[in-house]
Amino acid sequence: MNRENKKRKYEKGYYKNHPCTESFICKNCGRLVVSAGAGSNHRNHCPNCLCSMHVDHEPGDRESDCGSIMDPVAVWVRKNGEWAIIHRCRRCGALSSNRVAADDNPMKLMSIAMKPLCSPPFPLERIEEMTALMGGDGKLHG
Ligand SMILES: [Zn+2]
Ligand SMILES: [Zn+2]
Question: How far is the CA of 25 from the centre of ligand 1 (A)?
């Protein structure tokens, strides 16, 4: 990897200090994504399908050569109550956490948040058996 000779459109760290105001077409859903309406200076994912692109190592540094689509795989809540999205790269598996934007699709956010609750990592129909194994009787008493 020869990063020194890599031709760059902007200096290293450009986007850390400058807002990204470029529009782009989402590679996942094909929607035109404009920077207006995000409620922040950094629009790093599509507000419709919430997919991102693997272009950064650190947010805003544009240092990654990967360029693949990053799927939203989880949401979490920061200390200040703000929601953030965990993105995972389809090609290399890199994970990154990004703030949600003001106009992100709320239904899509909810469906990602609900996913583990609707598909728990254990079989619900065998809950009695499992609680029995854990020492309780697990039966529903009338
Ligand atoms: Zn999209
Ligand atoms: Zn990647």
Answer: 8
